[in-house]
Amino acid sequence: IAKFAHCVNVELLLDLVSNLRTILRDPAALSTPAALHCVHALLRLLSGHGAALAVDMRDVQQRLYSLLAEQALLADTRLLATALDCLDHLCRQRSALLAPRIASFFCRLVDAAATLPHAHAVALLAAASRLLVACPRVTALLDGTDRAGPPLAPARADEREDVDSPRAINSTAWQLALLHRHYHPVVAQLAKRLAAAEPLPPALGRSTPLRLMATYSDASGAFNPPPQPPSKRRRAADAAKRAASSSGGGELHESIEAAVARAGGGEASSALDFAVLLR
Question: What is the model's pTM?
Answer without folding.
Answer: 0.77
